[in-house]
């Protein structure tokens, strides 16, 4: 299937967005996953296919960005979970290394 996608893309490079849409939303969900990187003059190389787990991954939390948050909702996690605190600290450092960094901090 991946080789067919490469051939199709070479024949119709202007249809890349259509290929991506179809693969993401209009194809049967199969038991194995792979990917191909295409672009420029580079030949497409197919990554080895991996079998997808039977059970969905364990979900810890979802921040939707749609106003479902409330002030200090992560405060307990920040004070009690070392991994969460480390992740927030890492993301905060990334934000503050931006050229147009925010005046606020994630930790604050």
Essential attributes:
108 residues; alpha+beta; two-stranded antiparallel ribbon; 4 helices; 12% strand
Q: How would the blueprint of this fold be written?
A:
Blueprint: H1 2-11, H2 16-25, E1 32-33, E2 36-39, E3 42-46, E4 50-51, H3 75-80, H4 82-96
Antiparallel strand pairs: 1-4, 2-3
Characterization of the model:
- With 108 residues, the protein is α+β, with helices and mostly antiparallel strands.
- The chain has two domains: 2-51, no CATH class; 59-108, no CATH class.
- Helix content is 38%, strand content 12%.
- It contains four helices and four strands.
- It has a two-stranded antiparallel sheet.
- β2 and β3 form a beta hairpin.
- The longest helix has 15 residues, at 82-96.
- The protein is elongated, with a radius of gyration of 21 Å.
- The mean pLDDT is 82.
Structural class: alpha+beta
Tally of individual helices: 4
State Rg: 21 Å
Number of domains: 2
Number of extended strands: 4
The order of strands across the largest sheet is 1-4
The geometry reads as: elongated
* Helix content range: 25-40%
Q: What is the helix/strand order?
A: HHEEEEHH
Mean pLDDT: 82
Describe the largest sheet: 2 strands, antiparallel
**N- to C-terminal separation?**
48 Å
Strand content: 5-15%
Low-confidence stretches: none
Compact summary:
By secondary structure, this protein is an alpha+beta fold. Helix content is 38%, strand content 12%.
């Amino acid at each position: 299937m991946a080789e067919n996608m490469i051939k199709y893309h070479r024949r119709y490079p202007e249809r890349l967005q259509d290929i991506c849409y179809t693969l993401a939303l209009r194809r049967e969900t199969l038991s194995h996953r792979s990917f191909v990187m295409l672009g420029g003059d580079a030949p497409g190389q197919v990554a080895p296919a991996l079998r997808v787990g039977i059970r969905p991954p364990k979900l810890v939390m979802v921040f939707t960005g749609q106003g479902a948050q409330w002030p200090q909702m992560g405060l307990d996690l920040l004070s009690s979970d070392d991994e969460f605190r480390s992740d927030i600290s890492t993301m905060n450092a990334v934000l503050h290394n931006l050229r147009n960094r925010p005046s606020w901090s994630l930790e604050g």
